Structure formats: C-alpha cells, structure tokens
Amino acid sequence: xxxxxxxxxxxxxxxxxxxxxxxxxxxxxxxxxxxxxxxxxxxxxxxxxxxxxxxxxxxxxxxxxxxxxxxxxxxxxxxxxxxxxxxxxxxxxxxxxxxxxxxxxxxxxxxxxxxxxxxxxxxxxxxxxxxxxxxxxxxxxxxxxxxxxxxxxxxxxxxxxxxxxxxxxxxxxxxxxxxxxxxxxxxxxxxxxxxxxxxxxxxxxxxxxxxxxxxxxxxxxxxxxxxxxxxxxxxxxxxxxxxxxxxxxxxxxxxxxxxxxxxxxxxxxxxxx
Amino acid sequence: xxxxxxxxxxxxxxxxxxxxxxxxxxxxxxxxxxxxxxxxxxxxxxxxxxxxxxxxxxxxxxxxxxxxxxxxxxxxxxxxxxxxxxxxxxxxxxxxxxxxxxxxxxxxxxxxxxxxxxxxxxxxxxxxxxxxxxxxxxxxxxxxxxxxxxxxxxxxxxxxxxxxxxxxxxxxxxxxxxxxxxxxxxxxxxxxxxxxxxxxxxxxxxxxxxxxxxxxxxxxxxxxxxxxxxxxxxxxxxxxxxxxxxxxxxxxxxxxxxxxxxxxxxxxxxxxxxxxxxxxxxxxxxxxxxx
Lengths: 273, 291
Known about the structure:
- The complex is a heterodimer.
- Chain A has helices at 2-31, 36-41, 53-60, 64-94, 101-113, 120-129, 134-159, 164-171, 176-205, 208-213, 222-227, 237-257, 259-272.
- By secondary structure, chain A is mainly alpha-helical.
- Chain A folds into two domains: 2-53, no CATH class; 65-228, Orthogonal Bundle (MetI-like fold), CATH 1.10.3720.10.
- In chain A, α4 packs across α7 (134-159), α5 (101-113) packs across α7 (134-159) and α7 (134-159) packs across α9.
- In chain B, strands 1-2 form a two-stranded antiparallel ribbon.
- Chain B is built from 15 helices and two strands.
- Chain B has a domain at 63-116 and 157-286: Orthogonal Bundle (MetI-like fold), CATH 1.10.3720.
- In chain B, α5 (63-93) packs antiparallel against α12 (212-227), α6 (99-113) packs across α9 (157-182) and α9 runs antiparallel to α12 (212-227).
- Chains A and B meet through α1, α4, α5, α6 and α7 of A and α1, α2, α3, α6 and α7 of B.
C-alpha cells in the first residue's frame, strides 16, 4: 500500500518535470507560427492557422542560412584542428618517453582554470593590431580554449589502453607517422567522439567571443544573430521566435538521435575536467 | 619500440602544434593582461602607466563594479539554491535505470545542449510583460495584481534570470549526481538494505558520503560558471534595469569593449580569474578525499 503511494508520487513528480522542461520549448514553437497580432491577442492556445511567414522572412530577408553556415564552418574547423593537435600531444605525453611529459600535461591542464574573460582584451588587441580577420582570430581562440580539455580526455583514455598493438606495428616496421594514423587514431575513436561533441557544442553555443571578434555582419554566428532580438526596441516577435526555433532545432535534432552519447560525453567532460 | 618513443625530434613534432597554439592564446595573453591592468589605454593614445590605480578605482570609486560583485554573489547563491538540492533529490529519484526514468533523465538534460543565448531569449519571451506566458497565466487566474514587468523591475530581474538559468542546468547537475550514485558499488547498498536500513538512512549514510567527488565537481562547476555568467545577463536584461543585474563579466565587457577602457577591463577580468581560482581551490580543499 505504502509502496504504491510512493510510486504514484514519483510518477507525478516525473510528469511535472517533463512538463516544466518541455512546455517553454513547446510554447515558443507554437507561438512562432502565429502572426504578430495573434501573439498579442491569443498568447496561449494554438494558432488559428499555422502561418510559416516568419520562417520565410528570416531565411529570405534576414539571410539566416548564412549565419547557420558560419557557425557550422567555425565549429567544424575548430573540431578538426583540436582533434589532430590534441591527439598528437596526448600521444606524445602518454606514450613517448621524455623528462617533461608530466610537466607538460600539468601546463595544459592549467588552461582549464583560466576564464576566457581574463584574456579577451589582449587577444582582441593582438588580432586588431596584426590585422588578422576577426574570423581567423575567433577560430584560433576557439581552438586554443578547447585544447586543454581535449588533451585531458584523450590522454586519459590512451593511458587505459595497452600498448601491444603499437609494439606489434613497430616490429612490422611502421614509422611513427603511420603508427599514429593507422593505430592510435582508430584506438582513440570513442574519446575523439567525446571531444568532438564538447568542442562543437562549445563553439556553436558561444556568444561572448563572437561579440568581441566579429564585426562584419556577414561573418556573424547564429548566436550573435539571435542575440540581436533582445532589447525592448524589437517588436516583431514572430521573427524572433522562428529564429530561436531555427537556432535551437539542429541541437535538439542531434540530441534526440544520440542523447546517450551526448550525455555521456558531456558528463566525461564535466567529471574529468 | 623504445628507440622510436625516445626520438627527440618526433616528440617535438607531436607536441608542437598544440603547445604553440595553446601557449600563444592562453598563457601569454594572461600575462599580458596582468601587465595591461597597470595601464590606462584606449588604443588611440599611447598606453599610460598608472600603477594600481585601476584596482584602487574599482574598489573605491566604481559603485557599479561593487554592485556587479554583489549581484554576482547573489547570482551564485541563488543558482546553488535553485539547482543543487533539486538536482540531488531528482538524481536519487531517478537511478533505477527503468525506461521511463531514462526518458526523464534525457529530457531533463536537453536544455544543457541548447545555447545560453537561445534559452535566455526563450525566457525573455516568457517573462515578456505583454505577450509573455507568465503574465497571461496570472491574468487568466484572476491575479491581475501580480502582473509584472518581470525583467524590468529591479526587485525581480535577477531572480528571474536565475530561474531561467536553473531551468537550463538542473538536469546537468542531476546527471552529474546520477553518475556518482551509479558508481557506488551495488553490494554496498544491498548490504545496507539487508542490515535493515530504510531509504532515508540509505541516502544519509551510504549515498551522501560516497558523493563527495561528484559534489566537488558540481560545486566547482556551478561556482566558476556563475562567476563567468554573461550570456543570460547580456540577452535578458543587458545588466539593467539601473544595473540591478550587472554582473562582473557584463561590467567587464561594458568597460573594455563599449567604453574602450582596455586596462580597466583587464583588471576586472583578472579579479574574475582570481575569484574562480580561489573558490575552486577552497571547494576542493573542503571536499577532498581522505586518503
């Protein structure tokens, strides 16, 4: 008897939780199909007719596709460079024999503690002074700030893998380059997936670095684009809402298909970092 | 094998890319930032050495900075209060791994993969005085007296921001705790059950003492990320009304990048860095493993 009561209570809590998390998202999704007048007159309830007009506006007039592409490009470049550079460094630190490998690891790990805010001014000045395009500077900063966590995860994983495969390859006459490409990278695959997830999310969701480094409208990221809707002087809510939906949709889509992987990846990043 | 792994040239080639990128973009700017904090510089004129003036001004003349420190501390406290106990409770409720629990876990975690900017805009809309759902609900409920400009009122703005942030990250901390509970050996729990421990005793005597490592992680994360909070403030309130939600990061952005006071901005950034460093060291000390 007591047990059923507790179970009912548990499920009641669970259902409430699901509603609390999902209703705000649903509310935004539904409202995004309403006309501006209807958003005022009929704040809740379904729209009288599903009107995709604001979606057409943000893609045709506001060129949202460009900002989505920008974010994807920045994130992809960052991921590729971070994975290559960090995998090489992690390999050198865990497998190669030299005096300073532990010191080197500690040096990279210090980077996790430094908030990017303390570096923004010198980085901004350096990029401006050297005449680098803002986009290049931005991607370089994304890369550098993702490297410590990446090395930490990759090195941690590699340490747990026995080195027999590598030894066999060396006996077969493989050079270090071949060894790295043909043996180490495949071994690292699961942790590379984790690093990719963390790095991609970090770049995709960043706002402050974009604000500091990007000035030309055509180079802006998705987050930068949607952040323009905040502030009381903007009153076309249809456009604002559909832009949010478009900015959030890719992440939610990816999450529904690989939630376990994403959760595990982010938990590894958190618990280890 | 040994010979290959001792080749100095190979080692340098493998470590160099990460080392160069990292060193030039994290440690070097940090040192430069420390130097710049002793200067007054707007990039147009030559930098002018002013010693500790930036820091002295921050703590004696800049009332907005002091407000921002106070708000940051309130933000940290409210975030901990809103997120950690609830996350802990839900984690305990949600560890038997049945299918429905997995669904709850995954849905709870969902907002963590959404950008802070988007979440902030969603809540900006929810709190909106005219079209927001909060006021619509209050009107429908007949409590017109509670209808409110949530984000434009000094008394409620910071609280509302913290609620939005909590909505986003409760699931994240919950999952951290779940990892901790799952790591507790099953036979330890079984043994306690056989000895006749009730659920409450189980939570207090077995689960909580074993949660130290994950508690440490979640505390360090919530404190450091709250010190650094920027997106939520920038998007929802812009630091207003009348600096009632100004936090250290938004103040730093304002001073350095909108008012072009670069040295001054560096000083705020460094204080932020020291705060994160001190707090995470203290937390790790208090919750360290006794070994």
